[in-house]
Write a structure and sequence with these properties.
The complex is a heterotrimer of chains A (311), B (355) and C (560). Chain A is 70% helix and 1% strand. Chain A is globular. With 355 residues, chain B is mainly α. Chain B has a domain of 231 residues. Chain B has 14 helices and no strands. In chain B, 55% of the residues are buried. The chains are: A mainly alpha (311), B mainly alpha (355), C alpha/beta (560). Chains in contact: A-B, A-C, B-C.
Chain lengths: 311, 355, 560
């Protein structure tokens, strides 16, 4: 076991963990916003996938990673806007629409990818890396944690920002009320529909951003179905985090590590089938759920459309 | 709500028309939007849909394939109907299906040497049902005991099951004689018998029988009614003294078992083996089908035929005009959206009419 | 009291109706100040119902204007319109003489109209001050210190003491209501609407609320009090308007009101409420007054024999949102009506559920006719004769989308003769339903109609038909008349008394003390999950019950 703990192994593991964890973090934080506001956003997988596609296309044609991330976020918002229109405004079943969006995004992106890239499979250049001065030169930790794309740091910063937002802002109060007692928010003169719409669109942006990161930074190319359940893991992270963004971060790190294990083990010369490693995060979710079953808390009005005067 | 909640409206013809429209309009809209996308991509949608019908319905070979494909779709649909009627979102179909398939593929070639064919087939099916049901136990117990949202847990178990099925194929049941990792193959002669000299295996008959039985169970038995009460109003179920926890677990197990049977039948009837990374991903695909049929066991047969034609014909049409097969996925997604939308508009219409 | 002894009721009703015609606004130009708010010719229709039919009213500063009427009179719709939750089909709303549109709750708040709704509209997972700050726009900075200043200001105004950082979910209902009043006044204390504010309060809480209202009146707030209780209207109202079937059918003006005794006010109001169609008997009117006490001749309950039901030290496990039971013990004899009083949320729900068998007791025993049934579930207890008429008629009592026929047998599923070896006999089920519909006068288009489409009264009839069928021995009624109109209320009361007369042990849980005083032989009081006392029903027991309801006796008892 000791020969496993070599520098290259650790660096590869930690670096991979961050790379794999960031999309989950973004998805988890996004889903957390929706869930806080009382929307169970099952379509987040579709939002990520569509964001991955639009993000890749924009980055590929513009040559700018920034454009890629922006387009990814916007792509996610496009899918989210369907949720807003159908579920938030019209009160349609959030689960049915969520499944439809995931299936539809899978089909659409695969279709578009087929026509654009299936013969060439273009790749992006390596994503730009921001080395944090000073910290990046620390052995092991430096190359593993402080030499990443700027999105990584922004995502971590987002955790702090959201923690503040939820606690100490009108937005936080309004989100909490929209999920816990929508009628109270309505009576206070704030539109529940508008609050939830904003929440879902934010979710879409973050999920799309996560997808774009997955495609542009993680893989360097777009592959159909590439999110492989990352959005669903985001849902679980949000569910277990009980409204606290810091827990989403911890969960994302944990999942990142287990996902990064394959590559790290290969670096160390140990060959484990990828399937075993793919099972790890899901097995861990189930384990966590079984152990902490009592503690997962969802807002009372989750998944229920709000109709004024319909108590 | 079957027999129980048949609306007794004076204007029956209008209601009939509305019922047909509720189904036809989303389908037509989905096909139209899908066609528009084809058009944008520079393909002729009429050619595409023409090929779909030609292959999936009008050619003898295609029709046989369509019938064959109906078997797993129907069985999965039966499984989902049981769950959805009880208000349980079993979205773990893929994992349940694949695990059952792998278990069948591992068992069948091993048993066929010592046991008669009929017994082998039955043991395979029963074991597969049991395995799939067992795989649904964790989400079922978490929901029954702690009220944990089964959407999430069943999805997680599905991802887990899909990967686990691959691990089983690659590490435990791998046929050493093949280069591509797959299980030992069940000889064609040992598979489910074909129907009257066609290529359609008898799985379709099993599926039809199961769907009708499920329909009868839902409409004509105390158990079915209890399930539906749990689905329609869990608080009322507690109030009436129903064992909600037990019913939840039973529903989950039954639902997963039927989906497992689908996987088993597909292996015993069509493939004879499971290749690594094989995943037809029917789990979510059948969801819109079941919604189209409004959870009705009889209506589901027609829609399964429609979906089969779309899939079989779509495979051929995709090849012929150069569109990926995933186009069908997008159609299904669109269908689901339009279905919900039309349902909602219909709801508004009824409300305005004060029905 | 006989109706024909009233002093010319019809005439006075007619006269007052003239007073409320639209041009009341103009009349303010004289010595009287102009009203703060006026509604003119408000009409609002729902499918099949005219909820508000040409309603015109004035609301003045420094005046408590009572809107009186029974369920369905259109009070809530009018409040919804003033609060911006609903829009009228036609008619005008004037604030300070200016026509306004109240298109959303926000616009109402901006015009200084604050509303305290019948159901608590606070976020339990937020603190008091956070709930009060709720409603700020996202671009604004959270102004906590300004909010605290306003909070103190309003605390002084209302004369209440609250911890701004307490979680609202942990406050008592009375305290939550104080928070609601603060929120309603948060953006200016111009108009305050209180919708049935006393239904959840103890007698003491009602007195406190009255004090708060008078303070606000003294500060020049225009108060609108919605109630169906006449005593309250007399106690607090300066001006009383009576609504019936969506119309204003009469009013008592402040000048008149000052010169009238309670009896006179009462008589006038009753005359207005029933107009040409006088109540079929005086009981209806008395129900409305909330002082029907002593009407029923007390039967003597024979408590010499063995009790039918004995609960010994029942406790339940705490669960989110509901108060658990602590050591509840009581006996119930055949033919007895035991009323259970208490403020909502003091363990009544758990008590009913535990007795019915749908909730497990954590400890303690329940004996029925000497047999221990603690471990039995709902079906076994039902067979043994325990029946539960739940207060959540659509929430848990029935499945709204299922037919009346199925709902009539909801607790018999799988039993002979409607099911044989698990197979359903729909013909028999529908025959059975038609019989029950006929016998219990359930108004439904057909036995196959989804029960959710019936009125509350008819759903209650289905529940009564189901629970009182075949060999009932003990019946638990939870808020049996909640949300029912007079006729159905009377019907439910008759059923309760009748079931007791037939020798059934009957438990009536209600938050309406008047109702319990009318039907009960003894009244037990629940406070924080304990049964803190059982008193024999009789004159002047309200005071004692009121004390028990707030735990005063308990505190004194444990203190000494």
């Amino acid at each position: 076991m000791s020969e496993l703990l070599t520098q290259p192994f650790l660096i590869s593991l930690l670096f991979g963990a961050v790379t794999a964890g960031v999309p989950l973090l973004l998805a988890g934080l996004g889903e957390q916003i929706s869930e806080k506001a009382g929307v169970l956003n099952i379509g987040i997988e579709g939002m990520m996938l569509f964001g991955a596609y639009t993000g890749f296309v924009a980055a590929y044609y513009s040559g700018s990673f920034w454009m890629g991330f922006l387009a990814g976020g916007l792509g996610g918002m496009v899918v989210a806007s369907v949720v807003v229109l159908l579920c938030i405004r019209q009160g349609l079943n959030q689960i049915v629409i969520g499944i439809a969006l995931t299936i539809g995004a899978e089909g659409l992106t695969a279709l578009l990818h087929f026509f654009q890239f299936s013969k060439t499979y273009p790749r992006l250049d390596k994503a730009p890396v921001l080395e944090i001065p000073g910290l990046a030169s620390i052995p092991v930790v430096g190359p593993a944690l402080f030499s990443h794309n700027i999105i990584v740091y922004l995502a971590v910063g987002l955790v702090v920002f959201l923690a503040w937002l939820f606690r100490a802002s009108y937005v936080g109060l309004n989100l909490e009320a929209a999920g816990a007692k929508p009628a109270a928010l309505d009576a206070a003169g704030i539109s529940v529909v508008a609050t939830r719409s904003a929440a879902v669109l934010s979710t879409g942006f973050l999920a799309g951003l996560g997808g774009a990161y997955l495609a542009n930074v993680g893989a360097g190319l777009f592959v159909p179905f590439m999110t492989h359940g990352a959005g669903f893991i985001g849902i679980v992270l949000a569910m277990l985090a009980r409204g606290n963004p810091v827990w989403v971060l911890l969960g994302a790190v944990l999942f990142g590590v287990s996902l990064a294990m394959t590559t790290a083990l290969q670096v160390a010369g140990v060959n484990v089938p990828t399937d075993v490693v793919h099972m790890l995060p899901f097995a861990m979710v189930m384990l966590v759920l079984v152990i902490f079953a009592r503690h997962s808390v969802l807002p009372p009005a989750l998944g229920l459309p709000y109709v004024r005067g319909d108590r | 709500m079957s027999v129980d909640a048949l609306p007794l409206t004076p204007d029956r013809t209008r209601e009939h028309i509305a019922a047909v429209a509720r189904v036809a309009v989303p389908i037509l809209l989905a096909l139209a939007v899908g066609g528009a996308i084809l058009l944008i991509l520079g393909k002729n949608p009429f050619t595409y849909y023409g090929y779909v019908v030609q292959r999936g319905l009008l050619s003898w070979g295609g029709l046989q394939e369509t019938m064959t494909r109906m078997a797993p779709l129907l069985l999965i649909a039966a499984g989902l109907i049981v769950a959805f009627r009880a208000g349980i979102w079993n979205l773990g179909g893929d994992g349940q299906y694949l695990l059952a398939a792998v278990v069948t593929a591992a068992l069948a070639p091993a048993l066929i040497d010592t046991l008669p064919r009929g017994l082998t087939l039955i043991i395979c099916m029963v074991t597969s049902i049991a395995v799939a049901a067992a795989w649904s136990l964790i989400p079922a117990l978490l929901k029954a005991r702690y009220g944990i949202n089964e959407i999430i847990t069943s999805l997680m178990m599905s991802f887990l099951g899909t990967s686990f099925a691959n691990v089983l194929v690659k590490l435990f049941f791998r046929d050493p004689a093949t280069t591509v990792p797959q299980t030992r193959s069940l000889e064609v002669v040992d598979r489910l018998p074909r129907i009257f000299g066609t290529n359609v295996h008898s799985g379709i008959l099993i599926a039809l029988a199961v769907v009708i039985l499920v329909h009868l169970m839902m409409t004509r038995t105390a158990f079915g009614l209890r399930l539906q009460i749990v689905g329609a109003n869990p608080a009322a179920a507690v109030h009436a003294g129903l064992k909600v926890g037990w019913l939840t677990v039973a529903t989950f197990a039954l639902s997963a078992g039927l989906i497992g049977l689908a996987g088993s039948v597909e292996i015993l009837g069509v493939w004879g083996t499971v290749r690594a990374d094989w995943n037809p991903a029917y789990g979510l695909l059948v969801v819109p089908l079941v919604f189209l049929a409004r959870f009705n066991g009889i209506a589901v047969i027609g829609f399964a035929l429609f979906f089969s034609v779309l899939m079989i014909g779509g495979e051929s049409a995709s090849r012929r005009i150069g569109v990926p097969q995933d186009f069908v996925l997008m159609l299904v997604g669109l269908l689901l959206v339009f279905l919900a939308l039309v349902e909602y508009l219909d709801h508004l219409r009824r409300k305005r009419a004060g029905v | 009291m006989k109706m024909d002894s009233l002093p010319s009721p019809l005439q006075s009703g007619e006269m007052t109706r003239i007073e409320t015609t639209p041009n009341a606004v103009g009349s303010g130009a004289g010595s009287k100040p102009a009203p703060v708010a006026t509604v003119r010719n408000i009409c609002k229709r729902f499918p099949g119902v005219v909820a508000n039919d040409d309603i015109s009213l004035d609301f003045n500063a420094g005046e408590i204007h009572v809107l009186l009427g029974e369920n369905g009179a259109g009070k809530s719709t009018l409040i919804g319109i003033l609060a911006g939750m609903q829009q009228p089909d036609s008619g005008d709303i004037l604030i300070d003489g200016v026509r306004v549109r109240l298109g959303s709750p926000r616009e109402s708040l901006d015009h200084g109209i604050g509303t305290v709704f019948q159901h608590v509209l606070l976020v339990p997972s937020l603190t008091v001050i956070e709930n009060l700050m709720l409603g700020g726009s996202w671009w604004q900075k959270l102004a906590r210190s300004a909010a605290l200043a306003r909070f103190r200001e309003l605390s002084d105004l209302l004369g209440v003491k609250l911890d701004p950082d307490a979680l609202v979910g942990k406050l008592s209902l009375g305290e939550q209501q104080q928070v609601e009043i603060m929120r309603a006044l948060w953006r200016g204390e111009k108009i305050l609407i209180l919708d049935e504010p006393t239904s959840m309060l103890t007698p003491q809480g009602v007195r406190d609320l009255g004090d708060v209202m008078r303070r606000l009146r003294a500060k020049g707030v225009a108060l609108i009090l919605i109630t169906h209780k006449l005593a309250e209207a007399y106690e607090l109202g300066d001006r009383i308007s009576v609504l019936r079937l969506g119309r204003v059918v009469g009013a008592i003006l402040p000048d008149e009101r000052q010169q009238m005794t309670e009896q006179q006010v009462t008589d006038r109001v009753i005359a207005m409420m029933f107009g040409a169609t006088m109540p079929t008997d005086a009981a209806d009117a008395e129900l409305l007054l909330g002082r029907a006490e002593g009407r029923r001749a007390r039967r003597l309950v024979d408590r010499s024999g063995a009790p039918r039901l004995r609960a010994t030290q029942l406790s339940t496990a705490a669960e989110r949102g509901a108060c658990p039971l602590h050591d509840v013990s009581f006996d119930l004899w055949p033919g007895e009506v035991l009323g259970i009083a208490g403020i909502d949320g003091n363990g009544q729900k758990h008590l009913a559920e535990t007795l019915a068998g749908q909730r497990k007791a954590a400890s303690g025993t329940i004996m029925l006719d000497g047999h221990d049934i603690t471990a039995a579930g709902v079906p076994a207890r039902r067979r043994a004769g325990i029946r539960y008429v739940t207060d959540e008629r659509l929430g848990e009592g029935t499945v709204g989308t299922f037919s009346v026929a199925t709902n009539l047998l909801l607790k018999e599923i799988g039993n002979e003769p409607f099911w044989r070896r698990g197979m359903t006999d729909w013909t028999r089920i529908h025959d059975h339903a038609r019989e029950k519909i006929e016998h219990h006068d359930i108004r439904t288009p057909s036995e196959k109609t989804p029960i959710g489409k019936l009125s509350g009264g008819n759903i209650q009839k289905v529940l009564l038909a189901r629970e009182l069928a075949n060999d009932a021995g003990v019946v638990i009624f939870n808020k049996p008349t909640y949300g029912l109109d007079l006729q159905n209320t009377r019907l439910a009361h008759e059923r309760i008394v009748e079931s007791a007369r037939h020798g059934l042990g009957t438990i009536v849980i209600s938050t309406d003390l008047d109702e319990l005083l009318e039907v009960s032989d003894r009244i037990g009081v629940m406070y924080q999950g304990r049964l803190v006392g059982i008193v024999e029903n009789g004159p002047e027991v309200e005071l004692e019950i009121g004390k028990l309801m707030t735990g005063q006796t308990l505190a004194a008892g444990t203190g000494s």
